[in-house]
Amino acid sequence: MKTIEIKVYKFEELDEQTQDKVIENYRYINVEDMNWWEFIQYNLKDFYNIELLEFNLDRGYSVNINIKSELFEVCENIIREKTYFHFILNEAKSYVEKYNEIQSNNKEDEVIEQLVEQLDYESSIEKHIESSILKSLNCEWEYCISDEAVIDSIEANDYDFTTNGKIY
User: Fold this and answer.
1) What pLDDT is attached to residue 112?
2) At CA 29, angle to CA 25 and CA 31, rounded to 5?
């Protein structure tokens, strides 16, 4: 029988060069085995009634969403909640103001409907919403792979490392 002893270290006990190596080796620890975007997906659904169907942060840089309520309601929620849409807060406020103006200045439902459709088209609010969601997803991705987030995950999981920076 052979007994082998291996010394293991906590992240903070490693020398700076090995810490840097660990961070680079485990850069994607927060994104490779979990759906890092689910928190955003649930909040979009719960607070804004927006379904995040798919997205691509690579070359395609796109998002596919389903807005399940009127744009006016979504914009009111954006103004109230702000969480993912601080990028377009002014556009949402402008949309709500114009929408309210249409409602107060017109009596016929058909005219109101046409003007709201025109407002939806001219304001491009749906495109602004998509763009803001993409920015939020990108910010979350960047944070998840940042040195700070990688170190936080390593420490939270109480990993031990060999002298060459491998998780033991």
Assistant:
1) 85
2) 130
Element (H, E) at 140: helix 125-144
Count of positions (residues) in the chain:
168
Query: What does the alpha-carbon distance between residue 99 and residue 91 come to, in Å, rounded to a whole number?
Result: 12
- Could you read off the pLDDT of 9-22 as tens digits, one per residue? 999 999 999 999 99
Classify residue 141 by burial, with Cβ atoms within 10 Å: 0-12, 13-18, 19+.
middle
Least confident of 68-72, 80-84, 117-121: 80-84
> Burial level of 15, CB count in 10 A (0-12/13-18/19+)?
exposed
Other C-beta atoms within 10 Å of 30: how many? 19
Q: Are strands 50-56 and 62-67 parallel, antiparallel or unpaired?
A: antiparallel
Residue 98 exposure: Cα atoms within 13 Å on the Cβ side:
18
- Answer whether 101's CB lies under 8 Å from 90's CB: no
Q: How far apart are CA 84 and CA 89, in angstroms?
A: 10
Q: What's the CA gap between 41 and 49, in Å, rounded?
A: 10
